[in-house]
């Protein structure tokens, strides 16, 4: 822990008192040095629920006392070809929360007002809202990438994002097939408790070919495993920001018009769409809370796979 002065917001910024911040695998990649670090020291954390305590000059759209969310995308340039075509998640000059600017593993955080999300939703518990701001959002973005016609959906890696997207997919009328580490009966039972039609190891085949699969685990060897279980014309979506090297695999796994895509970041439009969906279809958020001072313990538990659902820090 480090004690700092409470920061003041600059033009167009808000200062938030942090109520809760979920712990994401991306935080782990940052702490473990698996991503290039543009700024050090850096405070991780990008699934933040906070209360507006101060507003910088020109900061509009929020009032003192509002509860807002701060996601991974903390800024986009607004003028590159991606931003102007509705793809600000691919901005050429983005700034990410907890990566380019200090994040929510803190008592207070500064965020750009235009990228703070209104949280006018029935759920009152900040601990259960925080995971929606990345695990939920990247899961939603991945679900959209899988395609509306993907009625039988495989999910590889059943952690924070998977346990939320499973519920969203089922609410849309899809069947979910969960793939975990081989012989991980506890996680398989967790997946079935959330409505998965089938749960097994990543070395197993489901009862029937799948329309699409989403990979949340950062393990490149799951790419050929997922391609093996999708039908002709099916799609495999890589939902993480980092993944170990994908091993060589025979072309026949990709042949017959199977597709392999990645998703990157999120847009504010994605966030609005997802939060609107959650208002209509509340999700069970399985959270394990840690005091802020135990952030390293939370990261260690995530690294070791000891968390069922998602870890959340509370100042």
Give a short summary of the structure.
By secondary structure, the chain is an alpha/beta fold.
The figure for the number of domains is 2
Mean of pLDDT: 95
Tally of individual helices: 8
Uncertain runs are none
As a percent range, the share of strand residues is: 25-35%
How does the helix and strand content classify structurally? alpha/beta
Rough outline: globular
Rg (C-alpha, Å): 19 Å
CATH superfamily of the largest domain: Medium-chain alcohol dehydrogenases, catalytic domain
Helix content: 10-25%
The CATH class of the largest domain, by name, is Alpha Beta
Instruction: Tell me the CATH topology of the largest domain.
Output: Quinone Oxidoreductase, Chain A, domain 1
Gap from first CA to last CA: 12 Å
β-strand number: 15
Order of helices and strands: EHEEEEEEHHEHEHEEHEEHEHE
CATH architecture of the largest domain: Alpha-Beta Complex
The main sheet comes to: 7 strands, mixed
Descriptive tags:
single chain; 315 residues; alpha/beta; Quinone Oxidoreductase, Chain A, domain 1; Rossmann fold; 8 helices; 15 strands; 23% helix; 25% strand; globular
Break the fold down into its secondary structure elements and pairings.
Elements: E1 13-23, H1 25-31, E2 48-55, E3 67-70, E4 73-75, E5 95-96, E6 108-112, E7 117-118, H2 126-129, H3 135-146, E8 152-156, H4 160-171, E9 175-180, H5 185-193, E10 198-201, E11 210-215, H6 222-229, E12 230-238, E13 259-262, H7 268-280, E14 287-291, H8 295-303, E15 310-314
Parallel strand pairs: 8-9, 8-11, 9-10, 11-12, 12-13, 14-15
Antiparallel strand pairs: 1-2, 1-6, 1-15, 2-3, 3-7, 4-5
Helix pairs in contact: 3-4
